[in-house]
Amino acid sequence: MVKYYESKTIFHFTWDQVAQGFWKKYPNPESTHVLSEDTIFREIKDNKLFSRRLLTKTNRVPKWGERFIGSPVVRIVEESVVDPKSKTLTTYTRNIGYTKVMSLVEKVVYRPSEENPEWTVAERSAWVDSKVMGFGLAIQAFGIERFKKNCSKMVQGFNFVLSAMFPQPASLTAQHQIHQQPQSKFKDAAKKASELAKAKANSLYATCEPS
User: Which residues belong to any copy of the PRELI/MSF1 domain (predicted)?
Assistant: First the structure.
């Protein structure tokens, strides 16, 4: 049985920005495993941009996997469709090497967030399969776990690229940092402010009180 995984990521950038940044994801500090990328096909049809890219990546192979995989280098085909009218960027990715050992198919749809149109949501789906007799389920489980870790790195790397391309105003950055502060800090600040107000009120009352 094929293993399935899905997740959703919010990027605090507009869809237009994400669609531009998508083509410049590499290199970034989290993508050292991406060795090369080449665009092998591109055309505009029905006002949509169709592209196909060939990526070469490397992943450390666990000891038990060395008997199945001779080289950690694998080639990935990435096909994408950009529809500016509906504001969707859809990608389909699959490996073209070692498919009998493990095949991974990924679909990602980037679209404006319903929560905030200034943000972009990425809905990700992945299917992992293995045809190695006796080891299929273990390899599938390993593939899903590694995919989850790689997703986390991908999000961090993409955010790094987007932040470099589209720096946010200092006011928005500060506001975001404030919202990220623990609630306990707000409580402590409120408590101190209340105590200070009481102290000033008492002092003022003592000054105005007749002798």
Answer: 2-170
pLDDT digits (tens, 9 = 90+) for 15-58: 999 999 999 999 999 999 999 999 999 999 999 999 999 999 99
Helix (H, G, I), strand (E, B) or coil at 122: strand
**Tokens, residue 70:** 């001779």
User: How far is residue 106's CA from residue 127's CA, in Å, rounded to a whole number?
Assistant: 6
Gyration radius of the chain's alpha carbons: 25
CA distance 197 to 24: 53
In 3D space, the residue among 65, 77, 76 whose CA is nearest the CA of residue 132 turns out to be 65
Of 157, 168, 167, nearest to 24 (Cα)? 157
Please tell me the distance from the alpha carbon of residue 113 to that of residue 119, in angstroms, as a whole number: 5
Q: Rounded to an integer, what distance in angstroms lies between the CA atom of residue 157 and that of residue 192?
A: 40
Q: Would you state the structure tokens that stand for residue 161, as one six-digit string?
A: 């690229």
> 66 Cβ partners below 8 Å, 6+ apart?
none
The count of residues in the chain is 211
SS (H, E, C) 2-59: CEEEEEEEEECCCHHHHHHHHHHCCCCCCCCCEEEEEEEEEEEECCEEEEEEEEEEEC
pTM of the prediction? 0.78
